[in-house]
Amino acid sequence: MTSIRVLNMYSGIGGNRALWPNSVGERAVKITSIENDPGVAEAYRVLWPDDELLVCDAHNYLADHLTDGWDFIWSSPPCTSHSKLQQFVTRRSNIYRYPQLEQLYGEILLLKHFAPSGTAWIVENTIPYYEPLIPPTTKLDRHYAWSNTPLPYVANSKDRPRIASEKLAYRKNQHHSLSPMIVATTQDLERAYGITLPACADNWEASKRRQVMRNCVMPSIGKAVWDQVFNRHETLQGTLMECVS
Question: Under a CB-based contact definition with an 8 Å cutoff, are residues 209 and 186 in contact?
């Protein structure tokens, strides 16, 4: 029997796939993850040794391998340039940068118009500072999601620690530039997500450790999406209540 093939793009350390099953019925789940940061990829490899891991550019990989027989594609392109935090910083720094439209909207359009009919897909990204150029399918906690599958609405989770981008508390440092007032620590995020950074991350700077954890999709949200996509014979209520309780 053929396995279920999953493409997990911009995987980070794999928060979204943490609660995904190893099989669905009699079909094994085979995950191919893409992460372009070698250090983050090594941490992923330690946490999820059974997954296939490729260290390369996810955006280009999708275009080259779109029709490779995936059952499910999850994409989480970089969100910084779209975020409300970026708008806040830009207005105060007077340094202007374009939002990375090609990655986010290019992937949505590519998947919407050219993904094979048997491939379920989702693109998730932060709620932007502008009106989305393509209306999202649903809201998943602090992110929007675009998908060819009806997805559950997930309200803001009370289990996820507050982070700087949600509390726009900034101060000027001695060089008169802006730096965030840290709200949640790396340890807070590890406890909330049930994921501990492996020893290979010990030599990372503290800011990178926190950012990598902060970039994680909450595992319970990844599980709720998975269950909806694969029509598991179980209620979504327990998973969704975990997200919002």
Answer: yes
Where do the domains of the chain lie, and which CATH numbers do they carry? Answer: 4-244 (3.40.50)
pTM over 0.85: no
Are 245 and 158 a contacting pair, CB within 8 Å?
yes
Say how far apart CA 192 and CA 195 lie, in whole Å: 8
Q: Show contacts of 61-64: CB within 8 Å, 24+ apart.
A: 61/9, 61/34, 62/7, 62/9, 62/107, 62/110, 62/111, 63/110
**Phi, psi (5° rounding) for residue 209?**
-60, -45
Q: Which residue has the higher pLDDT, 161 or 98?
A: 98
Please tell me the predicted confidence (pLDDT) of residue 79.
Answer: 67
Condensed to tens digits (0 to 9), the pLDDT of residues 128-172 reads: 877 889 999 999 888 899 999 988 777 665 555 554 443 333 333
Helices (H) then strands (E): counts for the chain: 8, 10
Dist. CA 81–CA 65, nearest whole Å: 26
